[in-house]
Design goal:
2 domains, zinc, 5-stranded mixed β-sheet
Length: 197
């Protein structure tokens, strides 16, 4: 039992308040993005706010692919929502990265829960499956197959076949797009990391 979050509070957003701006290239998707932001407001103590003059903020852009820094990096940092990224689950996933969370399959204990088939993973994406050092294990929650941070079973596959197989029988690893939002453990992890009251 452990966790996949930043090992220091230095990279957390003070008081769980995150200034953001949404690039005009995403105006047509603004309602979808706001829906993902509101999911955090409804389910957690995290509060996203329109940036005014805050020096540390997230700029949500339409670059190539889906990506985010892990935690608050200082200054402007980008979340990219390019082609294939514009579903609520993926937006929530990228926001979780910006809050300080890694992928579930990056946990140092993940081999007890999923079997990773490296030969089926695109070479350029193999780093997405690297295990974290034990120091990142600070929240001590169960492995969460339902986490918005858990990749699907065929993520980054060279041929569409499985790149991860759950060790527990009957478990299906689904894409974040097909999840309803944050899992109960995701909410617990946010609460622990940000000391929600």
């Amino acid at each position: 039992m452990l966790r996949n979050a930043l090992s220091t509070d230095d990279f957390l957003w003070p008081n769980g308040v995150v200034p953001i701006q949404i690039h005009s290239d995403l105006d047509a998707q603004r309602d979808l993005i706001v829906s993902a932001l509101n999911h955090f407001h409804e389910e957690t103590c995290i509060r996203f706010k329109q940036r005014t003059d805050e020096p540390d903020f997230i700029n949500i852009i339409a670059d190539e692919g889906c990506y985010s820094s892990i935690g608050r990096t200082g200054g402007e940092q980008s979340i990219s929502l390019g082609d294939g990224c514009l579903c609520k689950g993926t937006i929530i996933h990228e926001l979780m990265h910006a809050l300080g969370f890694y992928h579930e399959q990056n946990r140092s204990d993940r081999d007890e829960y999923v079997y990773v088939i490296y030969e089926k993973i695109l070479e350029k994406a193999r780093h997405e499956f690297n295990k974290l050092p034990a120091e990142a294990n600070r929240l001590f929650t169960d492995y969460d197959y339902e986490s918005i941070m858990q990749y699907s079973s065929n993520a980054f596959s060279v041929d569409g076949s499985d790149t991860m197989v759950p060790i527990k029988s009957g478990v299906v690893l689904t894409h974040p797009c097909y999840k309803g939002g944050l899992s109960s453990f995701d909410k617990l992890k946010i609460s622990k990391l940000y000391k929600c009251q």
